[in-house]
Amino acid sequence: MWEEAITLCKELAEQYENEIFDYELLSRRLQEKQAKFYENIMTILRPKPDYFAVGYYGQGYPPFLKDKVFIHRGKEYERREDFQNHLMSQFPSAVRLNTTTMPGDDIRNSPHQIQCFTVQPVLEIPPRLKNKPVPDQII
């Protein structure tokens, strides 16, 4: 979340410049913190999280979940089995589907079914970074 921290530093700088008017404190705090965030982006290895598709099928789910698939980002180093166990603990009466294909009407008309499998994200490079020598850590 270092990128988000940099954004917050910029917002904080605006507050110090336009409302608090303490440039000394701003220069000390902002310079050391913001520089550290940029350094972290470039030097610290960040684990790539796994992503999971989760489908909620059956008559027992509320309308906002029923027959819908959501993509969830796992925590650092979280395995599918751990994610799935946590998910199943939230819906103890659900039956786990062990397939990645779209379920048929028999599954959709059953009480509770959960489908969970790993998916691979598709990297979309922002237009402002295309055709430029940008390090992978920034992308």
TrEMBL record:
Q: Name one GO cellular component term.
A: plasma membrane
- UniProt feature coiled coil, ranges: none
Domain named DOCKER: which ranges? 1-139
- Give TM segment ranges: none
GO BP annotations listed: cell migration; myoblast fusion; small GTPase-mediated signal transduction
Which Gene3D superfamilies does the UniProt entry name for this protein?
A: 1.25.40.410
Question: Which molecular function term from Gene Ontology is one that the record holds?
Answer: guanyl-nucleotide exchange factor activity
The family note in this entry says: Belongs to the DOCK family.
Q: What name is this protein filed under?
A: DOCKER domain-containing protein
Q: What is the lineage of its organism?
A: Eukaryota, Metazoa, Chordata, Craniata, Vertebrata
